[in-house]
């Protein structure tokens, strides 16, 4: 679910402007999962554009407090959401921790890095939601460390049905700055893509695992 439509449209436009989101229906990308995709999203680019990263930071900070209340801690999911998560925590005057994909193999073997007390309220910041599996693994690691998860806030979601179901099953509330539907509408309106290409991109979104196979 998006925080609000105005933010969703503005965020989509900014991501397209800096090529954080690339749309190429005629020459699809191949994801790490092996899926063929007409879209590729790299939100790490946001950090290289001060005005845009400040916009994303401010929208996160404002909307997180509005939807979840002010938490005790902001947690970023490594590695893509560490940078933006720190900015959000700084803006809100809150402590920050981050969650590794798996525990370290040496030293203290931490998966959650930073100071986190049992029972603290945590909002998780993520850069991108596809199936939601890796994001929800981070949530589980935080819960095991004693955190009370208030919800998750992400920059962008592809809006897959499987992700919606995964978050529902995990009982985790997810809000995003923008999503796939708003991106496509904006991309057509601003002539980044044609209406025919929009149709292709919409078809992919319905069944991405078998598209163009």
From TrEMBL:
Amino acids binding 5-phospho-alpha-D-ribose 1-diphosphate? 100, 104, 106, 126-134
Give the EC number(s) under which this enzyme is classified: 2.4.2.10
Report the protein name in the record.
Orotate phosphoribosyltransferase
Family matches, as NCBIfam families = pyrE (TIGR00336)
Residues bound to orotate = 130
GO MF annotation list:
glycosyltransferase activity
Q: Domain Phosphoribosyltransferase: where?
A: 56-156
Function, as annotated: Catalyzes the transfer of a ribosyl phosphate group from 5-phosphoribose 1-diphosphate to orotate, leading to the formation of orotidine monophosphate (OMP).
Listed pathway(s): Pyrimidine metabolism; UMP biosynthesis via de novo pathway; UMP from orotate: step 1/2
Q: Which cofactor does it need?
A: Mg(2+)
Catalytic activity entry: orotidine 5'-phosphate + diphosphate = orotate + 5-phospho-alpha-D-ribose 1-diphosphate
Q: How does it assemble?
A: Homodimer.
Q: Which UniProt keywords apply?
A: Glycosyltransferase, Magnesium, Pyrimidine biosynthesis, Transferase
Give the superkingdom in one word. Answer: Bacteria
> What family does the entry list?
Belongs to the purine/pyrimidine phosphoribosyltransferase family. PyrE subfamily.
Q: Which residues cross the membrane?
A: none
Native species of this protein? Answer: Flavobacterium ammonificans
């Amino acid at each position: 679910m998006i925080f609000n439509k105005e933010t969703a449209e503005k965020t989509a436009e900014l991501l397209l402007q800096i090529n954080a989101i690339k749309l190429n229906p005629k020459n699809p990308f191949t994801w790490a999962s092996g899926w063929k995709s007409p879209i590729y999203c790299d939100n790490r680019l946001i950090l290289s554009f001060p005005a845009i990263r400040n916009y994303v930071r401010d929208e996160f900070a404002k909307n997180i407090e509005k939807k979840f209340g002010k938490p005790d801690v902001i947690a970023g999911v490594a590695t893509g959401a560490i940078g933006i998560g720190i900015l959000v925590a700084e803006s809100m005057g809150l402590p920050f921790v981050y969650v590794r994909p798996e525990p370290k193999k040496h030293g203290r073997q931490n998966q959650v890095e930073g100071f986190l007390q049992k029972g603290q309220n945590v909002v998780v910041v993520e850069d991108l939601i596809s199936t939601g599996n890796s994001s929800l693994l981070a949530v589980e690691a935080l819960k095991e460390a004693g955190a009370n998860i208030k919800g998750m806030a992400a920059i962008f979601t592809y809006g897959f049905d499987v992700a919606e179901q995964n978050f529902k099953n995990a009982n985790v509330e997810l809000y995003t700055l923008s999503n796939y539907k708003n991106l496509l509408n904006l991309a057509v309106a601003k002539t980044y893509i044609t209406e025919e290409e929009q149709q292709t991109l919409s078809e992919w979104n319905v069944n991405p695992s078998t598209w163009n196979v």
